[in-house]
Amino acid sequence: MIQYVAIILFVLGLYGLLVNRNVIKMVISLNIMEIGLNLFIISIGFVYDGIAPIITSSAGTGALIYVDPLPQALVLTAIVIGVGTTALALAIAKSIHVKHNTFDLNEVEETV
Amino acid sequence: MKNLLALFGSLLLALGIILALSNNTLFPSFGEADLSDRVSDEYLTQDEIDALGSANIVTSIVVGYRGFDTLGEVTVLFISSLGVALLLGSSAKQKRLELNFKPNFMLRVGSRALFGFILLTGIYIILHGHLTPGGGFPGGTMIASSILLLYLADDQFRAKIKSFKILEGVSGSLYVIVGLLGLLLATYFMQNFLPVGTVGDLLSAGVIPIIYILIGLKVGSEISGIIDNFLTEEEAK
Amino acid sequence: MNAVLLIAVPLIAAFLSIISKKIAPYLMLVVGLFNLILVFFIPEGFVIIGGFSQSLGINLLFDSFAKIALILVNSLVLIIFFLNIKKYGSYSSILLVALAGLNGLLLTNDLFNLFVFLEIAGIAAYLISTSNKKPTHTFHYLVLGVVGSSLYLFGLIILYAMFGTLNMVDLIGKIQLSGNYKNLILPFLLMFIGLGVEAKLLPFNSWVKGILGKSNTLSGPIFASVYAATIGFVLGRLINNLFMFEGSLLTVVIVILSVGILIGEAMAFASSKAREILLFSSVAQASIVALLFTNGIIIWAVYLIIANALSKLVLFLVINKATEDTGTDELDALQGLFSKNILVGITFTLASLSVMGLPLLAGFAIKLNFLTELASSNQIMLIAIILISTLVEGIYFVRMLVKLWYKGENEVSVKYNLSFKIVFVIIALALLVFGTYSTPLNKLDNSIDTIQEVVNNG
Question: What are the extents of the domains in chain B?
Fold first, then answer.
């Protein structure tokens, strides 16, 4: 179930990028896409009846089932990379505003 | 018209991905992942846990087994903050951005009290990265959020950005130096060269707490630098 | 000497360079030189990071394929920085991080590590593109780059869920044991499209027109030669060992690449601005390189990457310096550029003739060889497409050369420094030498990429 939600969020972010021409809304769509992707990554590590992969003193006897720790480590990296690119995108958005006085890419006069 | 096309395309893409994944014989369905097929099974064995000494297995992966990825991640944040400074911080004399709200006296004083608590929580999470969930990245962000609180609550506050830059540069280089020390003192880059201790103690897990402290300082100073760059503007002549 | 130093030393120099802005350019020169010299002293083999057993940690692989790529990329970055040190010295920290990222891309043997280095090199690229002073184009590039990386990560995660490992060698072994290719179509397609954004392949290359069309002497050569070469090598490594397209996915990929070649050449033909002609030619060449890797012609694709990187370096430097001095890159306004700069004109002509594939130049020897190999695998359609593209290339390059050599009404005066001229002469001589005496090129063969051997040996 959660994997469907993650894929829908990912595609929703892509749709937002295709449809919006406002720079800030494009940054938000980018973030939604990354959230969907991170949810998907975490969801492939889940094991039913698994516990968090932290060794505690209440380990007790019997075999313990842990959830997969590797996707969680990958998501940590992916979240931080997303933060870095969002900060840079917002700085570029501010310089677009300073240069063209608008956030809307349709209104920017492009001398391409 | 273009919106309709985009909507149609996105729905097609979502349907395509979901169908392809459900028809995939090797892709396990949600919750049915068999850890014995994956490399994570090795990370969870008692031998590997004792060899690294960290109680939090995710930390041992992030800083131990995949420490190189973490170095790359730290570099991504570094270059993003460098880019923000390049784009937004052109002149030397800068003053705070003129905003429409003016915070009052209670806000200014109360935020200073809160600042200490948030800072302390951030430091606690950084130090216990190998025992509880968290570590350098969330802890560093909390430290940065305490600085953001001071910025928001007081419209004349500016942190000392030059010292943040020096802290950022020094902690980043120390991270690479710790890796290089692993190359010199042990045989491989980023190998653990400190005693491991027992799992569950505060002073355990070798190099891992040290790396997390460096990461926490770096992340905190970088995000504070980014906040400062966004909330200042050029001095009007 | 350890291969990790190629990545660690630029990183530590970058971290230290922000403390003092004055020493940053000198740090970049020293580190660039150090990297270039270090590549020759590294022993071949795997480098394990962290001392864990091979499948648990991250490894780097240094073989002949990586060695050629590293020498090319490190020397190109050093040369481009040296030529631009006066005007763009403030970009040295960014170039240091870009150098680390590019070296990491070429060395790594772990797929998630590739993603991280792709992001590092990508963000460095966005920052270098801000030197064009066109924030809307940089924003467009950033959005496309992030979408591309996310698609790559999506494909990578599906592969991890299926096979349980991220190490390239282990993953290839497990894929070969599984045997059912239908399961792999979705993740491979996602990863290929994700890398194709940076590689200027067709569906997502709308950023190229903005970024390279307004480039300057720093960003133009960096994107057109350094980044193009690196992504070419990375795609080659992955297509040849991991993807190994077959069946319906192979048809889809070949169609995308062929259409990319034809559209790239058509748009270059239709353009009247010098930078646009060159960038569309780069787009077409990138698709040709990917096509060659898909057909298993590794060594000639590697030579094509090297020849393109060197030629495009000369072409972009000449045109971008002229644009900087005269303020425009319309071919009509640049008429007669070479009538005053004869040496530069000769080297520019040689470089563009090499891209076209005229005899006596390296481009001809390479083209002849890979067309022969394509013929021996009966790929008549592809040979036809490449010959058509060569014809179109010939037309627009000759048209451009004629306009640049013969004087128009306006006086065009552009001055090239001595260091520029020295670089141009060396590259033009290399292209001439390897074109006339191409036997050394036959010494290496497809075995420079050793991952398959490692997988087969267990």
Answer: 56-234
Candidates B41, B44, B48, B234, partner chain A, best to mutate (most A CBs within 10 A): B44
Domain ranges, ordered by start, for chain C: 5-457
- Among B157, B158, B124, CA closest to B140: B124
Closest-CA residue to C6 (of B52, B68, B83, B107)? B68
Structural class in CATH, domain A2-51+64-100: mainly alpha
CA distance B108 to chain C (A): 32
Helices (H), A1-112: 2-19, 23-43, 69-100
Could you read off the pLDDT of A4-24 as tens digits, one per residue? 999 999 999 999 999 988 999
pLDDT tens-digit map of B51-91: 888 888 899 889 888 889 999 999 999 999 999 988 887 66
B227 within 8 A of B187, measured Cβ to Cβ: no
Contact yes or no for C123 and B76 at CB 8 A? yes
Higher local confidence (pLDDT), B163 or C410? B163
Q: For residue range B165-179, list pLDDT tens digits in order.
A: 889 889 999 999 988
* Direct distance between the N- and C-terminal alpha carbons of chain B, in angstroms, rounded to an integer: 49
C200 touches chain A (CB under 8 A): no
Whether C50 sits inside 8 A of B177 (CB atoms) is no
Do B235 and B95 contact (CB within 8 A), yes or no?
Answer: yes
Give the residue extent of every domain in chain A.
Answer: 2-51+64-100
ipTM: 0.94
A-C Cβ pairs (cutoff 8 Å, strict): 69
Closest CA to C302 of C73, C42, C40: C73
In Å, how far are B210, C243, C247 from C180, measured between CA atoms? 46, 13, 11
Whole-model pTM? Answer: 0.94
